[in-house]
């Protein structure tokens, strides 16, 4: 029976680690900006 | 374009950012309202007309997800993400041309039709791949991606507003804003296209759990064509439709609802506080997508939907009974409902995987999203029509929504019962197991 194994060699090479960090920053920074703007707006419920 | 198979050592943690780069982009659709007032003043449109590109986009999302799902499964995630990138960005570029030349039909066609295809294909593009990479945590994996769809509007809303402030709100400024959106999203989504990989197939190691064990979905292969003929598919369709209807009913009417509920109280809700409430609901929606979907990996899909639908009905009951007397009760209950709304969206791919396997889960998910389109019409219709009717009858405050809340409870109970009817899919719908795959070395050769 075939199955897919997502767990390839456990330790990613350093180049891959840099790619992982870069790709998460690529999506994380804009998302953090959106969450920050949301938090600013949400506080109006308590201060508005 | 062949499905890109991961080389040895490829980390599965590169797959969620690939999915997020697409979902964070197409989630912009829910920030369309930022463009409405400038378009209305620049092109002399009514509110109904300026909503048309968004509405058409959502219709096209449902249609392209339903009818394009099989193509996505056949050609793989990189093909799907490329189509999503090209369509979504082209939609903005066509809209830029439409705004620059004051041809509104071009904006409707560009954003609504072309961009809408990008929405649908983009929405389902990473689902199947994520589930294959995270067979141990499918809820968490799809939760991350589908959370991105909620997060996309959070990014686009302030970003687009600031861009319009800088470029101006006449048709030239709008055209420039559309152009920048199209180009930026093309670059942003390209990360997903470049990073996405499907896992290498390999034989199951000795002593591995039985892949045909009920509930896991591993080893089950049901085609999309067969899935729509099973009662399980339609039970889940009802579950999703009821859960989304209940959430969207609040989301669509949140600001007037909280204002009306406390209009006659000693501390009425101001317009800016109502806007803050709407923002808080968006946060609950997004948090629910990740949190509840990840929880489903621990407590099971059926149990988590029992929570969404059962506790959701209880929350609506609390609002109906005590919401008008207590602001904290109203706010907490609506936040919980919205977290269940988001959770319902994010958990459904993993539920489908449990029942139908990973074979064509993306295509099955696409077909199930017609429940979303239906709920998108049903939820606002119930709340708006009933609130207008009650207002015409002279009612005010919480009484405006009493009947709507009762109907939402009824819908959630229907969804709860549908979830209870879900059973493992009968083996007659299963496809035979595939032949043993080639070795990893062979599988990776010449595929990427």
UniProtKB/TrEMBL annotation, chain A:
Source domain of life: Bacteria
Keyword Membrane among record annotations: yes
Keyword Membrane: yes
TM annotation in the entry: 18-36
Keyword list, A-Z: Membrane, Transmembrane, Transmembrane helix
Name assigned to this protein: Oxalate:formate antiporter
TrEMBL record, chain B:
UniProt entry tagged with the keyword Transferase: no
Domain of life: Bacteria
Regions that span the bilayer: 12-32, 52-72, 79-98, 104-127, 139-161, 173-196, 233-251, 271-292, 304-323, 329-352, 364-387, 399-418
UniProt domain Major facilitator superfamily (MFS) profile: residue ranges: 1-422
Location(s), subcellular: Cell membrane
Region Disordered, residue ranges: 429-448
GO terms for cellular component: plasma membrane
Keywords, ordered alphabetically: Membrane, Transmembrane, Transmembrane helix
Pfam family, one: MFS_1
Gene3D superfamilies with a match to the protein in the record: MFS general substrate transporter like domains
Entry membrane topology: Multi-pass membrane protein
Alphabetized PROSITE patterns for the sequence: MFS
Any GO MF annotation of the entry: transmembrane transporter activity
Protein name: Nitrate/nitrite transporter NarK
Species of provenance: Streptomyces harbinensis
